[in-house]
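If you are new to this repository, start here. Below is one unmodified record pulled from the training split, so you can see the exact layout before writing a loader.
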Amino acid sequence: MVKAVAPMLRDFLQKESAGGIVLICAAILAMTVANSPMSSAYLAGLDIPVVAGIGSFVIDKPLLLWINDGLMAVFFFLVGLEVKREVLDGQLSSWNRASLPLVAAIGGMALPALVFVGINSGSPQNLAGWAIPAATDIAFALGILALLGPRVPVALKALLLAVAVIDDIGAITVIALFYTGSIDMTMLGSGAIVLLLLGLVGRMRVASSIPYVLLSILLWVFILKSGVHATLAGVAAALCVPMQARGDARPLERMEHALHPWVAFLVIPIFGFANAGVTLAGIQPASLFDPLPLGIALGLLVGKQLGIFGFAWIAVKAGIASLPESVTWRQIHGLSLLAAIGFTMSLFIGNLAFADPAQVDAVKLGVLSGSTIAAILGYALIRSSLPRSLDESEPEVSAT
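And here is the target side for that same chain:
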């Protein structure tokens, strides 16, 4: 079992790391375009109306919302597959494996929210954004780790991955509970029926991907029309895909591996390009100290560090968890900074929390500033903790 899981983990990390680098480039490109003569074309392009439907059943949204509600549903479908695999057969499949990332992730979600609320307590119009700094962008974080090369312990990458997966579970729960508007019960009921059919297909251990894909698209349409955020349809559909189907087929792993390149190199970079463009014209340095961007930036930088590192330290000292072999406390500190790169998920939650363009721009300013500083500090801290060459490192634990 371990022999089979190790190559899968390495493959996952390689794809996420490379995708993170592409995402970084997409974010830089978005900032460049948004502050160039092409800015008006960039913004107008995101507002282009896109209409799809059959008869009177029509979905009419600007391109930006098709990206955020449609393409991101594919991302959340992949997240759902990853979460199910990690719980059944991965880093979260036992208490010994899950205890440290679970405790660290809880701290890494709770303290950033508290920092944000503390800073924005006098600005009630901003409090809807409390969950923004609680998010972690795993692709971006692993992309930064990839810049450090093979000297980074695999155990540290796996721990970062596990923390991010738990963080994603928390983000999905928050979106479902706190960022859902008025509900159309007819559409929600239709979605429930489709989800039931998906569950039956999964229980029958159907190996073909076709019924899962077709029913997932139908589920997305009904959930979108119901008023519940459509990306949750991706997670719900993914949880219906079985690990083991008839014969030797493993549809969950097959679909996960098929989707990874598309999500890492297309879906997430498109989202980053569409959402990271902040026009800096008229923005003064003092704007960073306004409650909304400051709460997000410090929630990421201070809250994540104290939450992940502090809770991990308490868990290890209390005997609840143990530090992975070959991983040092300095590297855990660096990991807590890389987990403070909120980017994709933070921007996504920010778009759900606020409709006012000024607040959305403030969210982008806080996320980009906090994530950039966290990336630089995390990179520097982990780099300083690594041996100069692989020959000087401690031997890694064999996967066999």
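Two things worth knowing about this chain: Confidence is low (pLDDT under 50) at residues 390-400. The first strand starts at residue 49 and ends at 54.
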